[in-house]
């Protein structure tokens, strides 16, 4: 017998959920925005903290409208080489641009950067990463 929806732990703080139909391309960003709103629900915060939450909501909405990823968001990731230690990734800068990073080791912790190239747009960085991989791919 299948579990009823009431047997699962509630995933949303804001209450009951519903299903909406949106273009598939919009779905991931809309879910991110909804999760951001849900994390700040209920708003029992006053003063400057409330202003910060409202500003975050406005920024999230603006990012969605402009199709700009959040700072640090990984837009592209591909492991290269025989071991999974080396990878090419594209990291959003939060302003519409992005950085292509070819690095070895755990990124952001203790890694060796082979190359780092900044691009004015996220799309340009992702396209460059694909070309970069074709040139640098280490045979397995």
What's the quick description here?
This protein is 34% helix and 21% strand. A four-stranded antiparallel beta sheet has the order 1-2-3-4, with helices on one face.
Distance between the termini: 47 Å
Total tally of structural domains:
2
Number of helices: 3
The overall pLDDT, averaged over residues, is 82
**What is the beta-strand fraction?**
15-25%
Strand order in space, largest sheet: 1-2-3-4
- Rg from alpha-carbon coordinates: 20 Å
The count of strands amounts to: 4
What's the order of the H and E elements? HHEEEEH
Low-confidence parts, pLDDT < 50 over ≥5 residues?
none
Shape: elongated
Tell me about the biggest sheet?
4 strands, antiparallel
Structural class: alpha+beta
What is the helix content?
25-40%
Characterise the protein shown here.
The chain has 140 residues and is α+β, with helices and mostly antiparallel strands. The chain has two domains: 15-66, no CATH class; 74-136, no CATH class. 34% of the residues lie in helices and 21% in strands. It is built from three helices and four strands; from the N terminus they run ααββββα. It has helices spanning 27-39, 48-66, 122-136, and strands at residues 74-80, 86-92, 98-104, 112-119. The chain has a four-stranded antiparallel sheet with strand order 1-2-3-4, covered by helices on one side. A hairpin with a 5-residue loop joins strand 2 and strand 3 (98-104). The longest helix is centred in the middle third of the chain and has 19 residues, at 48-66. It is elongated, with a radius of gyration of 20 Å.
